[in-house]
Amino acid sequence: MAASSATNENRGRPEMLWETIRLAIQAIFRNALRSFLTVLGIVIGVGSVIAMVTVGQGSTQQVTADVQKLGTNIVIVVPGQDAMRGGPHGTTASMFTLRINDILQQRIPEVALSAPISQTRERVIFGKENRLSDIVGTDNRYFQAAGWDVAAGRLFEPGEIASGRAVCVIGETVHKELFGGGDPVGEKIRIGALSCRVIGRLLSKGASTFGSDQDDFVIMPLATFQRRIAGNTDVQSLYISIRNGASVEDAMVRITDLMRELRRIRTGEETDFEVLDMKQFATILTGITDILTGLLSTVAAVSLLVGGIGIMNIMLVSVTERTREIGIRLAIGARSYDVLLQFLVEAILLSLMGGVIGIIGGLLLGAAGTTWLSVPFSPSSGIILASFAFAALIGIVFGYFPARRAARMDPIEALRHE
Amino acid sequence: MDNVPVIELEKISKIYGKGDIAVHALDGVDLRVDPGEFIAIMGPSGSGKSTAMNVIGCLDSPTSGHYRFMGYEVSGLSRDQRALLRRHYLGFIFQGYNLLPRTSALHNVELPLIYMGKPRAARREAAMDALRKVRLEARAHHQPNELSGGQQQRVAIARALVGNPKVILADEPTGNLDTKSSVEIMDMLRTLNRDTGLTIVMVTHDQDMAKYADRLIWMVDGRIERDERKSRAA
Predict the structure, then answer these.
(1) Is the CB of residue A112 less than 8 Å from the CB of residue A241?
(2) How far is B67 from chain A (nearest CA, A)?
(3) What is the model's pTM?
(4) Phi, psi at residue A194, to the nearest 5°?
(5) What local confidence, expressed as pLDDT, does residue A208 receive?
(6) Cβ separation of B116 and A333 shorter than 8 Å?
(7) Which of A38, A310, B24, B195 suits B118 as a labelling partner, its CA being 20 to 30 A distant?
(8) Residue A14: which H helix or E strand, with range?
(9) Rounded to whole angstroms, how far apart are CA atoms A200 and A156?
(10) What are the chain B neighbours of A4 within 8 Å (beta carbons)?
(11) How far is A299 from chain B (nearest CA, A)?
(12) Strand pairing of A74-79 and B167-171?
């Protein structure tokens, strides 16, 4: 007689495992609606993780690509600390001036060009068309440093810059929206109270990080902007290109030192401006994505926990409902292990089902999100596999207790159960 | 082989609870069942016949005494070892049929073979064979709620038979059935016993049903009070 020495028979036999899986699928679909509601927590948890990571990675890739496009030899100086997070208007530090900008360019040998930038958002009107766009005050150095090329017309003349004439160069979006693609050069557009003659339009650069449209702006001489739009003599930021071959790090140290001197900051006192190279700029931008991803991951984790508890709950209900079935199986010759495996497999499949629905939903959401933000959609197979594995883990962890309860039932009691 | 009893109970006791409140459900039962016997265990409620059935069916283990199944000592087996014993050597028929609901007759009959690890095709075939023996092959794809009580019990018999057990244990197999169906079931069990030499142990409280057996065990207070053998009719 083999029974006493064959406790391990069938363990891991593919035939048996397949039957167990088939049985679990049957049980899950017998209560299809209940099963779906049970796994909703897992669906939401996994779905939001996948969607967030997909969108986050798309944004990060876009930022990195943008930064590379801008060139690694660009340095931006803004007033205040953590200025990029608060925005230039969020700081109490005093603004810059054109004089500081020009001194930087003259005195620091690594600096190729330093362009003063001031900007705001304002409604731009031409005929019946109007559009809210970025209004930038700067000079020709900016076009050169940032790599803008003229599509039609011309850039500013020295006289126009010096006297602050009401002339402007428009980006491709403004051109398209206000002029419908027609020739804008020589036309007059209205920006707030200012009437401004269009002297040129720029070649398109397309959307940037987070889908912001780089072509959606009107550029005018700094003096014009200061007098006619802002009503002050502030320069909000400096857009600096470093000479080819010069060290960006060295340049940044020199800029910082000189700026401290010019702004009369004593030794030991804290700097009230920030010098950022594109790497830091990218880090700050992706940092925002990371924070968002982190926050949503917390929500997802809670959702997964709730989902797991849901699965445990429904499995406990299922075990109670099927007490008699368990009794029958035990009487027929199922061991504790067989019953444990049956319910554990059911919980795992249930959880995996939620995981798969969540992965699909999350990818769809991620695709929609990345399209909306115009960033690349490149789902990570790592996070998909991890979600899948995590869903299985939840099934095991939260399914084990109910399955053990089923496995430990006394066959006689279970058969008597009504 | 023929002189080794299928079931041999020796001073089997089953005590529930401890001390003053202890209940002796079985109190030193000695019983020997030879291959091919058809025995009926009778007795008033509380006489221990159900407990005896559970011990014989290896659903429960005795508190003390020896139980040899086909000559092997099984009273000390673990829960899982007993499960394997049931899987390979025992078939159960219950009063309430105990078929899986919302599952076809064929699938119900296949169930023991799944645990035996039989491949799907072989399972199908064996299950259909068993259903043919109880003349229900036409109802193979019906679910229990589409079958009459007598038919459900026949499915249960097919399920008990399908794994070629040494012993069939029937616990009040006709308890839920009308007279006509009861007779049908009992005829079937007796035919099985006569034709295939299958050992059957049945618990019943119905004198008419007990007549089908060729040996009657009468239990009172956890003891066997009478053990009557009928001379087997040819």
Answers:
(1) yes
(2) 14
(3) 0.71
(4) -90, 130
(5) 61
(6) yes
(7) B195
(8) helix A14-30
(9) 9
(10) 72, 74, 77, 81, 84
(11) 40
(12) unpaired
